[in-house]
Design goal:
Alpha-Beta Plaits, alpha+beta, 22% strand, 17 strands, 12 helices, 4 domains, Gyrase A, domain 2
């Protein structure tokens, strides 16, 4: 029994620690035993056991709470076959999301939509308030091309290098396996290294073989980046893009290449900056509303059910901490719909306790003793609790749409609501049955 209490105490400690505000530091040190401990972020050093743990949990807020940039791009599908439009838009959405994630932007929401006959892609970037920076992160079409001189065409003596590089070699960004930033060992200047796929390496070998002593231009969206003169045939499947890059420019170019070329051109048609002040106001109102609602529920449970209501209140507090800890651990990006889903799941948690307590009271009215009433109450309420929670979990699964069913909408806010509701309901099923039962057994030791 003592070992079980120790386990419960340790679990409770970690649960409380995961829910602590981000600005609460706690330090602890024992010099003789050389133990170092901080609580936020958690950092534990125990040289005796060679243990080091460092982890911090932060609450991630969505665009409506944290502020950021909302961008809408118009997709040009004029050159795409009608039957391929849907796939092209989904591919563009995935590439934009990948490109933004390469830059470390947390939880972007990228969605496709249709308005006034136009195909659009909207991008929400939480935490980014500089719209021009956001547009720079996403880039435009970022299609990489390799061009060469057309041997069948005669150029004037005054023709510039870029005018002569007019023939598409057929080698493009889809033939790039990996792009990384490297540095010239002689000058120390940043370069972009290209590693081709098997097909790309074969094409590049053929291109360099027929262009020895001639330039091959490397263009991004047909904008010249580099036009090196080929010295020899290159068969290793690697190339380097040189130029007057800064380190940041080389990094952005490598990221654009890695994320792939968009299958269709896009044009920015709307940009909106959402400040964090609106989000802060919404958070404050949500916290007040949630706190008042929770206090009223707890008061009702205590007044109506007495000691059982007090147990339900303790279980509800543990449920809230457990759900919030899971939101931070996953992590879940909280939006206003997400908070609404969490508050709704609190109602499901209270409902489980009410079903159990009413069953217990019903058994007591039949003349059974408290111990038997509690056992039968839990047993007979369990089926109703499972049916209600499993049904809600199924609805959450459908709303979240993880299988990308085409007949269901896939909006970020709807998915946020479904995710927090699903986590909350699953947690309430555990706390409403397991934790409540443990707490009753602890409070009523004589049964």
């Amino acid at each position: 029994m003592n070992s079980r209490r120790v386990v419960y105490a340790v679990l409770l400690f970690f649960l409380i620690w995961m829910c602590l505000p981000e600005n609460v530091p706690v330090n602890f040190a024992v010099n003789k035993s050389k133990i170092h401990f901080t609580i936020n972020p958690l950092s534990i050093d125990i040289p005796i056991f060679g243990t080091h743990i460092k982890k911090d949990f932060k609450t991630k807020l969505g665009l409506d709470l944290k502020g950021g940039s909302h961008l809408v791009f118009k997709a040009d599908v004029s050159k795409v076959k009608p039957e391929d439009v849907s796939d092209a838009l989904l591919s563009a959405r995935d590439i934009i999301e990948k490109r933004v994630n390469y830059f470390g932007v947390s939880e972007p929401v990228v969605q496709t939509s249709k308005s006034n006959g136009e195909n659009r892609i909207s991008v929400d970037l939480p935490g980014i308030e500089n719209v021009s920076q956001a547009v720079g992160l996403i880039g435009q079409t970022a299609q990489l091309h390799f061009l060469e001189e057309d041997a069948a065409q005669k150029y004037a003596s005054t023709a510039s290098l870029l005018e002569r590089l007019s023939k598409d070699t057929g080698l493009n960004g889809t033939d790039i396996k990996k792009s990384t930033v490297v540095f010239d060992p002689e000058t120390g200047k940043p370069q972009v290294s290209l590693q081709f796929t098997q097909n790309g390496a074969k094409l590049f070998e053929e291109i360099t073989a027929r262009n020895i002593g001639k330039p091959v231009g490397i263009f991004l969206d047909y904008y010249p980046i580099s036009a090196p003169v080929v010295q020899q045939k290159i068969s290793e499947g690697n190339a380097v893009i040189t130029g007057s890059f800064t380190v940041e420019e080389a990094k952005q170019l490598a990221i654009s290449i890695n994320s792939g070329a968009l299958p269709l051109p896009i044009q920015l048609i709307e940009q909106r900056n959402i400040g964090p002040s609106l989000g802060a106001e919404d958070v404050q109102k949500s916290v007040i509303a949630g706190g008042v609602g929770l206090a009223m529920v707890c008061l009702f449970m205590i007044v109506y059910y007495g000691r059982l209501g007090l147990i339900a209140t303790v279980a509800l507090s543990l449920y809230g901490m457990l759900s919030f800890a899971m939101f931070r651990a996953i992590p879940v990006v909280l939006t206003l719909p997400g908070i609404a889903g969490f508050i709704l799941s609190i109602g499901m948690a209270v409902d489980s306790n009410i079903l159990i307590f009413e069953r217990i009271k019903e058994e007591q009215r039949k003349g059974k003793d408290l111990k038997t009433s509690i056992r039968l109450g839990f047993t007979r309420a369990l089926d109703a609790i499972k049916d209600a929670n499993v049904t809600t979990l199924l609805v959450s699964f459908i709303l979240f749409n993880p299988l990308n069913w085409s007949f269901l909408p896939q909006f970020g806010m709807v998915r946020g609501f479904a995710l927090t509701l699903g986590i909350g309901v699953a947690t309430s099923l555990f706390t409403g049955v397991v934790i409540t039962q443990r707490l009753i057994q602890t409070f009523y030791k004589h049964i």
